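Example record for the data management plan.
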Amino acid sequence: METKEKNDKSKSTLEILPPELIQRILLRVPVRHLARLRCVSKLWCSLISDPNFAEFHFHHSSASTNSCFFIKYSSMVHFVYFDDNDASQKEMCPPFNNEPLPNFAVLGSCRGIIVLHRHPHSFVVWNPLTGFSKRISYSHLLPSRKYHGIRLPSLHGFGYDASQDDYLLLVAWNHWERQYNLDCLSLRTNSWINLDAALSKPLGVFDRFSCGLFLNGAIHWLSFALTTYKDAILIFDMKERTFSMMSAPEQLVMISCNFSGLALLGGCLALYYQNLHSCNTDIWVMKEYKVHSSWNLYQIPCKDFQPLCLSSNGDIIGRGCSWATVTVHTESLLPLPSDVEDKKKEEGGNRPSESE
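Corresponding structural encoding:
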């Protein structure tokens, strides 16, 4: 009897708490601290490493971690966190396997996954929090193009198709005669799909290195030259694999627009630009997605301002515009679907059969 009581007392709190309660506690922990907590015990490691927990934490945690990152000195990725009570920064080396650091570019971020372009002809898929990385070559796409050598896609976007549990990378290669070839990479199947036939008409004029904004299952691009409010935004639907157009607010004074772009503010699509007449940055926020009458104007008394996200109390967080590309990033422990399937196959292959 005494021995049993002694053993009970020697048990740690972690062993006494039921897994369901531990999971509820972990949901309150910012995701970037969870990676360190895996070493607390085998149970914690199992809970935190579970893809279902990673998915649940991403969608329902009250301690979501938002940040932005940019390339520093052409070789490092610099992260800045937006947490109200924990403003911090860190630098990380991109996952290039100790090779001489090349020049690289950011193609997008979605659900904690970042896509980098690495010269000469490859993309790198990277989750900085888990350390997972994967290199994908696209050199086989180049022989059919009318140009050769190192060249970034003119138009690109990265997003998640919830209907297929798949991440898609869309790239458009611009010929000198303003024609585009469109290709889509599925990270679940590791296969390329040509989307030239999905365009009912030629694309408009976009920036030389135009990055799409992912929202509501679609990727959005803003026309480089805002000459009219009509059909100013190009949309690619991830599920249907189709393109459509969306109009900007009619109140836009086209001649006064400069350095325009798209942003995601509080889950809403936002269009911003420098207003040369007022020396302000005008930010139009679409309160209801695809409801044209829901555009609302906000003005920042600064002409060099790029909105990034909203703080917890609704303030717009932004930065002074510069040539550096800043990408908003939400950290997660989410794996790629193909990685989960590979692990299941490995576990299935190692599992003994019933006859054994």
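Summary line stored alongside the record: Residues 145-150, 352-356 have pLDDT under 50 and may be disordered.
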